[in-house]
Amino acid sequence: MHTSAPHDPSSLASTGPVRGIAIAIDGPAGSGKSTVSRYVADALEGGILDTGAMYRAVAWDCLDRDIDLADREAVARAAEELELELGTDPEGATVTVRGIDITAEIRTERISQRVSDVATNTLVRAILQQRQRELLYATADERGFCVAEGRDITTVVAPDAQVRVLLIASDEERMRRRAAELDLEDNEDTRARMADQVLRRDRDDSTVSEFLTAADGVETLDTTGLDIPDVVERVLMLVAAAETAQEEAEHGKPEPVRAEAAVRESSSTQRAATDGPTDADIENALRAGLTDYELDDEDLALLTGDESEELLPEIQRNLPVVAVVGRPNVGKSTLVNRILGRREAIVEDRPGVTRDRVFYEAEWSGKDFWLVDTGGWEDRVQGIAYRVAEQAEVAVSLADVVMFIVDANVGVTTTDEQLLKVLRKAKVPLVLVANKVDDQRGEIEAAGLWNLGLGEPHAVSALHGRGSGDLLDAVLAAMPEEGRGTPADRGPRRVALVGRPNVGKSSLLNRLAKEQRVVVDDVAGTTRDPVDEKITLGGKDWTFVDTAGIRRRVLQSQGADYYASLRTRSALDRAEVAVVLLEASEPISAQDLKIIDMVLESGRALVLAFNKWDLLDEERHKTLEREIERDLAHVAWAPRVNISAETGRHADRLVPALEAALESWDQRIPTGRLNAFLGQLVAAHPHPVRSGKQSRILFATQARTRPPRFVIFASGFLEHGYRRFIERRLREDFEFTGSPIVLGVRIREKRKR
Q: Which among 262, 485, 560, 690 is placed 20 to 30 Å from 49, CA to CA?
């Protein structure tokens, strides 16, 4: 217990730097100052200073001695001469005047109704503030910590305290707390009395004191709806940060302060103060608080992860290109799957399934190369068949080696002979493949292919794998060390074009590439394989992937359409950002929404492109805006581009949208900044109380990027509405444009002691 004798100004001579932590807590009546301060002091095993008790003690003394509280000078003399013993032990902070214990008496309504007469006396305030300051720092120096609560404590009494907090609460909450403290029933009479004691007192006190708004450097905590442990924990977090800063300063390490931090001096002490704890301080304090909770090995690994780790782009390689060509239905895609060792290329027992040239990365005997599957080549054809043949010829022009596939059971046809003329003109090494050789008889038939003048016909069975190893050895022998150019690589960024059939994906790709890169036809479902194309836009290289249109019921599709849908999903998984094409001239369909949901499930960044915008009239434009607001509200964060793939209108706007989406997809928020953000968010908007309990956010960290995934450690379940609120605020504060956000919550309980 500290004893405060009648005030002597000479006792305030400088005593040197204070080694303890001073915590100043201010706020209006009923905000929880006294209760929170006691719990904080108890948790720290430090001292407590109830500055309001001093004013109440003066009021009691004057009333006990019949001193008129309206006589300012008489009350000031009483305060100057007050024989006060003020306890600083949080478990029993007694108040004694002239040897009389008045601890309980000063909390009665009689004193509460008159204490404002003393508190608004500026002569008394000057006297008591000096006493409060002296006692605060003496106790902090002696016990390591001292919590002081009351009027002007953060601004006048202890503006240089290491921790300064302003507690606030709604008027209704403060009156309810005061009534509960006095054990009064909730009725109109009680509410009227509390309005007089709480609200009137605040109005009176605010004429001489500023405690309704926080001064510079003072942390504000709204305690409305919060349990006492929640508020105490947040104050302790600030104390831990201040203690860390002080220890670093004492050991000669640079103290982390903000740029606007000021150095304040006082008559008795001189110390550095900041405008609040830094993000790093808050992170360290919250991490320390987690030690009280049960954490598993996965939690610990996450909490000790390296934030500086970045996802590096894959190394670009100039690999040789091997093109697989032949007339329709000779088994090209089957052979591609055999070489890859997995079912990648679409295979069906009818011609014309493969239409575009499709690149796969393959390997044999330690040698990597690009394997290109092509559509069946035919001579003198029109329409879609002509464009398929055209793509096969482009593949040959890009290749370093060509595997010419012939059906050994059928022999050389007129189409094979015409294709061979095209291949000879290309002047590319040719490897002749006699496919569908399943037995000795087939080998005899394959031997007749020597007549083509291409050397040894390599007899294989793509279906069963017979002879495929010898074939690949021959391909490697004809292959250069490096390719002439990589036709499709993993690119700086990979963009998947997805949407329902015939929405214009291939047309857009051709427009961006400025050439007829993929087959386009009015028939829906022209594209079946994901087609990679390296395109330079906005001065950067992009790898665009044209995908098959996703039909309404994928699982009910058959044959090529079924496998095309599966490969579209696979292409989406390999992409980084998806451009979902929607037809602006038609209503947004359930199929469009399912495709968007598929992109969200894949975790890719998202850009919405409304195609055929040039076909819209004014009426459809208004209707579309209503549809977007109604049906696409859940992806309102996705950049939107209005284009025309046919004319190229506004296609250049894709690049800024893609860059913004990918920047958000890659964004990492430092742990300290994240926790500072959540601390402010939760203080202003705490989680709702359910069944008498309130879940608290203990700590948060960003576990990964691409897409950003955040893990929140909480003391209880966080409702889905509250999670959505956190996600929305994350987007607003950190500008997550075009990227999904994943929030994971790990509920952890306190360790049993």
A: 262
- Distance CA(562)–CA(551), nearest Å, equals 9
Residue 438 structure tokens = 């399943």
Strands 494-498 and 540-546: parallel
Higher pLDDT, 532 or 206: 532
Which contacts (CB < 8 Å, 24+ apart) does range 267-272 have? 267/12, 267/14, 268/12, 268/13, 268/14, 268/15, 268/133, 268/134, 268/137, 269/14, 269/15, 269/16, 269/17, 269/18, 269/137, 269/160, 270/17, 270/160, 271/17, 271/18, 271/160, 271/162
pLDDT at position 489 is 40
d(CA 412, CA 451): 10
Return phi, psi of residue 363, to 5°.
-150, 140
Range from 49-58, 242-251, 397-406 carrying the lowest mean pLDDT:
242-251
pLDDT score of 31 more than 90? no
Least confident range from 469-478, 487-496, 547-556: namely: 547-556
Integer CA distances (angstroms), 278 to 18, 285, 288, 339, in order: 22, 11, 16, 58
| Collapsed DSSP state (helix, strand, coil) of residue 157 | helix
Cβ-in-10-Å burial (0-12, 13-18, 19+) of 399 comes to buried
User: DSSP readout, 661-692?
Assistant: HHHHHH----HHHHHHHHHHHHHHSPPPEETT
Q: What is the pLDDT of residue 201?
A: 62
The sign of the dihedral angle between the CA atoms of 243, 249, 251, 254 is positive
Tokens of 370: 């690009």
Paired tokens of 494:
């990979």
Q: How far apart are CA 357 and CA 530, in angstroms?
A: 9
Q: Which residues, listed in sequence order, are joined to residue 97 by a DSSP beta bridge?
A: 84, 100
Express as a percent the part of the chain with pLDDT over 70.
Answer: 75
The residues, ordered by sequence, that sit 6+ positions from 572 with a Cβ below 8 Å of its Cβ are 496, 498, 547, 578, 598, 599, 602, 604
> Which residues have a Cβ under 8 Å from the Cβ of 114 and sit 6 or more positions away?
59, 63, 69
Cis ω for the linkage preceding 707 (within 30 of 0): yes
SS3 for 282? helix
Contact 697, 336 (CB under 8 A): no
Q: Which structure tokens are listed for 364? A: 């044999």
pLDDT tens digits for range 626-638: 999 999 999 999 9
* Three-state DSSP class for residue 146: strand
For the record, the structure tokens of 315 come out as 């190394």
Residue 657 neighbours by CB under 8 Å, 6+ apart: 607, 639, 640, 641, 738
- pTM over 0.85? The answer is no
Higher pLDDT, 206 or 514: 514
One-letter amino acid for residue 160 of the chain: D
Q: What is the DSSP letter of 83?
A: -
Distance CA 709, CA 12 (A): 55
- Which of 84-88, 291-295, 698-702 has the weakest average pLDDT? 291-295
Instruction: For residues 49-67, give the mean pLDDT.
Output: 91
Rounded (5°) CA angle 249-250-254 = 25
- 235 vs 22, 274, 718, CA distance in Å? 12, 16, 22
B/e letters for 703-727, b = 16+ CB within 10 Å, e = fewer, are ebbbbbbbbbbbbbebeeebeeebb
Is it the case that residue 339 has pLDDT exceeding 50? Answer: yes
Residue 661's pLDDT is what? 96
What letter represents residue 345's amino acid? A
- 115 with 69: CB under 8 angstroms? no
**Contact yes or no for 240/106 (Cβ under 8 A):** no
Which of 737, 727, 719 is closest to 700 using CA atoms? 727
> How many residues are present in the chain?
753
Mean pLDDT of the chain: 77
Asked if the model's pLDDT at residue 389 lies above 70, the reply is no
